[in-house]
Amino acid sequence: MGGPSAEREVSLVTGKAVCANLDRTKYLVTAVEMAKDGRFFVLPPHQRGPVVAGRNKKKRWLDLQNDDRKLFDVIFIAMHGSVGEDGAVQGMLESWGIPYTGSGVLASALAMNKVKTAEIYRAYGLPTPMFVDFTKEQWKKERTSLLKKITKEIGYPAVVKPADQGSAIGVAIVKNEAEIVRAVSKTIKFFSYLMAQKFIKGQETTCGVLEDRGELIALPPTHILPKLGKFYDYKSKYKIGGSTHVCPADFSKKINTELQRLAMEAHRALGCRGMSRTDIFVGDDGKFYVIETNTIPGMTPTSLFPEAAAKAGISFSRMLDKIIETSF
């Protein structure tokens, strides 16, 4: 847990929730934190759990390239955002021969990149909003032509967001050209690859997929009603009372079944493993729009994935069992 990304603090909360819910009759648990500089550490005692890494000076730095790799039968990856969710840590662990939970290198990299995700959705016939993507350099040199393209192909309102971030970080809804210029100029200082996507008016939903030894289980869909923002932003996601989650979603059985089908199709299209959670809009026009797939869903006290699993009769501990079993 942890890491250098903008989602570091959320990752620490997810990691602690996973540690707290792992079945101690089955697992010897050690919490490993990735520091911002990329090194890994645990706190003593090193062989007993739960060990929750923190700001204590008595850190034991790990050398996973050598003998320390023998400490672990499997690593449960609870890192959101870049490095943890984009295939980087997955590739590192594979090179060291350490099994890990969740999706592999390719699926993680594809799902973390919203542009590639949308292209995969289209290739598999999944409905997804139109978009225009651009780099910081393109915005600097081709702003006028990009704005014309966005106006022509996307229109307003539109959604501007980084192409490779999670937790709604850097997301803005813009109503005209002046607003998009302000939003991009602000966001592009921190993130160098952005996309402008067609704004979908409708109901926000999400649907988790849990893998049980190769068999996909579509969890009950959730209807998300943000309370602290105009959409399901960072505050709505992680603050207590930030949103209302209706699970199972209060749509017709036909709509809920279609949401589950789309979530499983997205999981398969990207080649995910173990778990995923796909965000889908039910548009006011009666159509469905697949937005993005999360390969490491949040598991904080307010998170959607464990909540939906519980509604399906799967406890937090048993959910973690299934994810770990799939990693082998």
Textual characterization of the structure:
The chain has 328 residues and is an alpha+beta fold. It contains ten helices and 13 strands. It folds into three domains: 8-101, 3-Layer(aba) Sandwich (Rossmann fold), CATH 3.40.50.20; 110-127 and 201-327, D-amino Acid Aminotransferase, Chain A, domain 1; 131-198, Dna Ligase, domain 1 (2-Layer Sandwich). Strands 8, 9, 10, 11, 12 and 13 form a six-stranded antiparallel β-sheet that branches. The protein is globular and about 55 Å long. The two termini are 20 Å apart. The model is unreliable at 46-56 (pLDDT under 50).
Produce the secondary structure layout.
Layout: H1 8-21, E1 33-34, E2 40-42, E3 60-61, H2 88-96, H3 105-112, H4 114-123, E4 131-135, H5 136-153, E5 158-162, E6 172-174, H6 177-187, E7 193-198, E8 202-212, E9 215-218, E10 222-226, H7 234-238, E11 243-246, H8 253-270, E12 275-283, E13 288-294, H9 304-311, H10 316-327
Antiparallel strand pairs: 1-2, 2-3, 4-7, 5-6, 5-7, 8-9, 8-10, 8-12, 10-11, 12-13
The CATH topology annotation of the largest domain reads as D-amino Acid Aminotransferase, Chain A, domain 1
List the uncertain runs. 46-56
Tell me the overall shape.
globular
Secondary structure category:
alpha+beta
Mean pLDDT across the residues is 88
* CATH superfamily annotation of the largest domain: ATP-grasp fold, B domain
β content, as a range? 15-25%
Q: What count of structural domains?
A: 3
Termini separation = 20 Å
- Give the CATH architecture of the largest domain: 2-Layer Sandwich
Q: Count the E strands.
A: 13
Rg (CA only): 20 Å
Q: Estimate the helix proportion, in percent.
A: 25-40%
DSSP helical segment count:
10
Q: Sheet with the most strands?
A: 6 strands, antiparallel
Secondary-structure element sequence?
Answer: HEEEHHHEHEEHEEEEHEHEEHH
CATH level-1 class of the largest domain:
Alpha Beta
